[in-house]
Specification:
The chain is mostly helical and 135 residues long. The chain folds into two domains: 56 residues, no CATH class; 45 residues, no CATH class. Helix content is 41%, strand content 0%. The chain is built from five helices and no strands. The chain binds adenosine-5'-triphosphate and magnesium ion.
């Protein structure tokens, strides 16, 4: 399990964190269970939906807090309906900054072809252009 942090920048209001979460015991139990299963190695997907202002973002904040306090790497990606034409937009938003923060040697186990394919999606994996005068 990778240990890490939530990406920089936040859409969560600071005042939200001061307010206790009310009446979400059932949802929290589901989230905790999914997190446990994900940490055990099974991919899990949660779809949180509801009326505007019902508390979707607040619940996600709770999920991130619980993941982080358990030492789990938690990354955030955002997308809007206007970005539908961007392939993998949500995934790139979630992963690209994190991938850029890693030591390039982390990718040395990947085959060149795999890396080339991945770099078509993640700009951070593209080789940086050589400067004039570099050997
Ligand atoms: N269970 C809760 N307990 C306490 N405060 C809550 C709870 N759910 C939501 N809130 C508060 O209500 C406000 C609106 O919640 P939130 O922003 O999470 O809603 P949302 O569903 O994400 O809204 P939108 O659809 O506009 O994105 C926030 O200030 C949030 O902290
Ligand atoms: Mg929201």
């Amino acid at each position: 399990m990778v240990r890490g942090r939530v990406g920089s920048g936040s859409e969560f209001a600071v005042t939200d964190l001061a307010q206790p979460l009310v009446g979400r015991d059932r949802e929290l139990e589901v989230i905790r269970q999914l997190l446990r299963e994900a940490c055990a190695g099974s991919a899990r997907f949660a779809f949180i939906t509801g009326e505007p202002g019902i508390g979707k973002t607040r619940l996600l904040r709770e999920l991130l807090d619980q993941a982080e306090s358990g030492g789990v790497l938690a990354l955030r990606g955002r997308a809007s309906e206007f970005e539908r034409s961007l392939p993998f937009g949500l995934i790139v938003d979630a992963f690209d900054e994190y991938l850029e923060s890693l030591d390039p040697r982390e990718f040395s186990r990947l085959a060149t072809d795999d890396l080339r394919e991945l770099s078509a999606v993640f700009p951070s994996l593209r080789p940086s252009p050589r400067r004039v005068g570099d050997a």
